[in-house]
């Protein structure tokens, strides 16, 4: 099947909109009907429709794939084996096998598990299947050394809970480790999971005391855990009250439990940007029990106050897995420069400057270098492009994209993305750039960016930082006198230029406008009737709102970016009582999503500015200073 060009796809989209689905009789219609049968759990119809698809159709195996998902739910190993024999390469058999090994592990069919596990590539394993793989390793007498990844405040998939229980039963974990895991779950308010873990491992957690912590006795380990749980729970709404409570009972708790409590209160305090208080409480915490999140917020508390010597000390004490992140190499280098130790800072900046991320750009600038967004030294040949176009996974991906756009079926676009990502594994730079160019021509902009970002040596920034819809975006950016590089940086982060993008909370279109925001902005500019997913309307409303938050936040792009993601009131609340370096403001944003968003949008803007030939403004200068609250 020849993949449709963007222009032909748009023509078909108009035809499809004007005629009922029954007017078509092609394989795409049969595929859609098969998907509907899958959703309706009509497996007989699903199988029948699959048989009707022609042999040369790129998506012919999808009905059998969906049928096999149903078979997994019923432990129908025969159908799974039939499918894996029929479809031996690609995303579909890998996903089926990944789910099947979890079923086999749950049923303790270790013979079949071992056979299928070795066929599943490491990059195809998810967290739960990896846990079952580790259970198998335990059964084979192998040593496990990475179970500390579960020492956090999040529940784990069922298979990982089984791994923890198996590791404890075989002596790979001790009771102290189980207590740490349990109290972290309690701190995260995952009571059911904490109780289940304690029950399955005979840990003496006091369930009655958890229900009524006021009656808990500090004379027992379970009672102490209940008291600790109550302290953390109360501190979430009353930090000072939680601290007073912990101070009052600290003498009755073991040092490790008291230290855990102070670490939890310190984390809550740091996230509220009460940096001085957080530093005091982190000093009382047990460093052995700090999670990655706590170490990072300890550092952010020192950074917020520009306590450079303390920041350097905290980063030096961090576990290597944390301190080796580009963020903390960069901030340690900044602290060393502030402390008059530039020679010690330079190697850290060199390490952090690898790549093209936010921290890499900042590190490059600290080293005295400027951003260079030159094109790749060589470009893919037509032979490279033709070879990739013929790749079965690429053909499936683009065929799915056609179905998604012609019939307005976003779920097929998700499948197209999965197929594309799978097809990019193990590709060299020229193949990745060829794939990015194919995706660009097909209007598959998010996957064009995905492919271009994966190159190691050869780069093409015109593909990494695409500029579709330039005429529309420039028009409204100029009307409103805002930086078009910044607008593009925001759109790239918001939607990756997917016009049908819709977030989990209902934001729509290129600039991911919430319905209420779109309606409010439309009223302000006198737009009585509008379609939020229309490209021009979405950009018009989005840029107007961006201009609005910019004007209401001291003309500061960093604060306006934060406001676009999390709301203007939050952006204001995150200001300090003194002017603050924009990089420090961004680093200490309490919401992980917004912090990452601001950093990426501003780095994107720096690249777009270079691509557009604007004045060469460094990222650090672009981040600027945040005025006092």
Provide key terms for this protein:
629 residues, single chain, two-stranded antiparallel sheet, 37 helices, disordered N terminus, mainly alpha, 64% helix
How would the blueprint of this fold be written?
Layout: H1 6-18, H2 27-39, H3 43-52, H4 62-73, H5 77-86, H6 91-106, H7 110-117, H8 127-139, H9 158-169, H10 175-187, H11 191-200, H12 207-211, H13 221-235, H14 239-249, H15 255-271, H16 275-282, H17 292-304, H18 308-317, H19 320-323, H20 326-338, H21 342-352, H22 358-366, H23 382-389, H24 392-406, H25 410-423, H26 429-441, H27 445-453, H28 461-464, H29 470-480, H30 484-494, H31 515-524, H32 535-551, H33 557-566, H34 568-573, E1 580-581, H35 582-587, H36 592-611, H37 619-623, E2 625-626
Antiparallel strand pairs: 1-2
Helix pairs in contact: 2-3, 2-4, 3-4, 4-5, 4-6, 5-6, 6-7, 6-8, 8-9, 10-11, 13-14, 13-15, 14-15, 15-16, 15-17, 16-17, 17-18, 18-20, 20-21, 20-22, 23-26, 24-25, 26-27, 29-32, 30-36, 31-32, 32-33, 33-36
Describe this entry's structure for a reader.
The protein is mostly helical. The chain has helices spanning 6-18, 27-39, 43-52, 62-73, 77-86, 91-106, 110-117, 127-139, 158-169, 175-187, 191-200, 207-211, 221-235, 239-249, 255-271, 275-282, 292-304, 308-317, 320-323, 326-338, 342-352, 358-366, 382-389, 392-406, 410-423, 429-441, 445-453, 461-464, 470-480, 484-494, 515-524, 535-551, 557-566, 568-573, 582-587, 592-611, 619-623; strands spanning 580-581, 625-626. The protein has a two-stranded antiparallel sheet with strand order 1-2. Helix 13 (221-235) packs antiparallel against helix 14 (239-249) and helix 30 crosses helix 36.
């Amino acid at each position: 099947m020849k993949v449709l060009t963007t222009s032909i796809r748009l023509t078909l989209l108009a035809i499809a909109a004007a005629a009922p689905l029954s007017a078509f009789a092609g394989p795409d219609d049969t595929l859609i009907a098969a998907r509907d049968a899958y959703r309706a759990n009509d497996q007989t119809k699903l199988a029948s429709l699959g048989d009707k698809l022609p042999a040369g159709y790129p998506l012919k195996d999808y009905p059998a794939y969906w049928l096999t998902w149903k078979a997994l739910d019923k432990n129908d190993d025969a159908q799974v084996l039939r499918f894996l024999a029929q479809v031996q390469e690609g995303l579909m058999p890998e996903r089926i096998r990944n789910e099947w090994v979890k079923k086999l592990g749950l049923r303790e069919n270790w013979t079949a598990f071992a056979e299928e596990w070795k066929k599943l590539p490491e990059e195809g394993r998810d967290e739960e299947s990896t846990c079952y793989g580790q259970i198998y390793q335990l059964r084979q007498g192998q040593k496990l050394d990475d179970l500390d990844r579960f020492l956090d405040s999040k529940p784990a998939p069922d298979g990982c809970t089984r791994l923890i229980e198996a590791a404890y039963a075989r002596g790979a974990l001790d009771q102290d480790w189980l207590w740490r895991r349990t109290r972290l779950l309690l701190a995260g308010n995952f009571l059911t999971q904490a109780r289940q873990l304690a029950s399955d491992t005979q840990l003496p957690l006091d369930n009655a005391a958890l229900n009524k912590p006021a009656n808990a006795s500090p004379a027992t380990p379970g009672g102490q855990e209940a008291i600790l749980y109550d302290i953390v729970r109360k501190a979430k709404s009353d930090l000072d009250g939680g601290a007073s409570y912990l101070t009052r009972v600290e003498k009755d708790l073991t040092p490790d439990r008291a230290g855990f409590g102070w670490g939890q209160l310190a984390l809550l305090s740091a996230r509220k940007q009460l940096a001085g208080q957080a530093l005091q409480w982190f000093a009382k915490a047990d460093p052995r029990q700090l999670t990655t999140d706590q170490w990072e917020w300890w550092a952010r508390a020192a950074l917020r106050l520009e306590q450079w010597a303390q920041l350097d000390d905290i980063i030096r004490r961090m576990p290597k897995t944390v301190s080796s992140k580009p963020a903390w190499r960069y901030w340690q280098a900044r602290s060393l420069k502030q402390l008059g130790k530039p020679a010690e800072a330079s190697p850290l900046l060199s390490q952090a400057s690898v790549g093209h991320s936010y921290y890499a750009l900042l590190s490059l600038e600290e080293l005295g270098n400027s951003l260079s967004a030159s094109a790749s030294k060589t470009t893919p040949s037509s032979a490279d492009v033709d070879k990739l176009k013929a790749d079965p996974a690429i053909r499936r991906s683009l065929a799915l994209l056609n179905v998604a756009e012609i019939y307005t079926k976003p779920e097929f676009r998700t499948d197209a993305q999965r197929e594309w990502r799978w097809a990019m594994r193990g590709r060299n730079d020229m193949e990745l750039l060829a794939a990015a160019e194919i995706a660009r021509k097909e209007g598959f902009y998010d996957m064009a960016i995905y492919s271009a970002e994966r190159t190691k040596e050869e780069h093409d920034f015109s593909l990494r930082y695409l500029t579709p819809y330039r005429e529309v975006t420039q028009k409204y950016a100029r009307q409103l006198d805002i930086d078009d590089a910044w607008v593009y940086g925001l759109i790239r982060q918001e939607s990756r230029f997917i016009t049908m993008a819709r977030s989990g909370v209902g934001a729509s279109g290129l600039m991911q406008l919430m319905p209420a925001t779109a309606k409010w902005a439309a009223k302000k500019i006198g737009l009585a009737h509008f379609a939020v997913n229309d490209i021009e309307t979405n950009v018009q409303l989005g840029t107007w709102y961006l201009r609005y938050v910019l004007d209401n936040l001291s003309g500061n792009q960093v604060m306006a970016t934060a406001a676009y993601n999390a709301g203007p009131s939050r952006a204001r609340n995150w200001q300090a009582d003194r002017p603050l370096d924009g990089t420090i403001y961004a680093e200490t944003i309490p919401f992980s999503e917004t912090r990452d968003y601001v950093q990426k949008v501003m780095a994107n803007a720096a690249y777009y500015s270079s691509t557009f030939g604007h004045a060469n403004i460094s990222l650090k200068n672009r981040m600027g200073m945040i005025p006092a609250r």
